[in-house]
Amino acid sequence: MQSGYGITYSPYNSDGSCKSQDQVTADFEQITGYSSVRIYGTDCDQVSNVLAASQAKDMKLFTGVYDITQLESELNTIISACSGSWSTVDTIGIGNELVNAGTASSADVVNAVNTARAILRAAGYAGPVVTVDTFDALINNPELCLASDYAAANCHAFFASDVSASEAGAYVLSQAQQVSLACNRKHTVITESGWPKEGQTNGAAIPSVENQQAAIDSLRENFSSSLVLFNAFDDDWKQPGAFDAEQHWGMLN
Fold first, then answer.
1. Annotated catalytic residue: which of 29, 74, 167, 192?
2. For residue 192, which of 2, 10, 49, 154 is within the disulfide window of CB 3.0 to 4.6 Å?
3. Which residues contact 107 (CB under 8 A, 6 or more apart)?
4. Quick check: pTM over 0.85?
């Protein structure tokens, strides 16, 4: 992954419908100071729409396959959108937190990563292919990161009830180091980290606008690169989730 910070983005309206190219482009007018953008799937024409918007802002694209049971179909969508622009693709992720969620076995994910890499190499893509999972899933299943071109870990300090917002960066850095150790010292990228601005308190972890900023500042202090901040905008299309916070991680609204 290139230097600088990435940011995550979801191309959905509040009702879950797909944003248009014009809406995506308007969103990207608000996204500045990031070297890459991470998306999660291939629905809603998001690969081509976000690729166009990110290229206009000189940002690289971290794209991905959401459903590994539809691996070849999703890869074909990515290849169709990106084959003329591989130089602007930062990373291709195969699944997000599948082992942590229990929706796929580590063996199935490893097989998907290896299959995807072969397909993508044949299509001319020479960049990193990874699977993304939570930091603890990677530590407990190091075969996931050993199959990846770097260790790609999601880590949110908010879910550690003894960590305050100002301690978020040190906490996430510590977990990144533990992931690297579990993965034979492979380079580790934190592929999601942020802090909610609304929701229920989780011990020392308190959602607020001020704490979100404190957490982001702390993350930036501890990482000069290899960090994808979560999330560009609030995800009103999601269910409230843990601590009623799932919709409220947006940094730009």
1. 192
2. 154
3. 143
4. yes
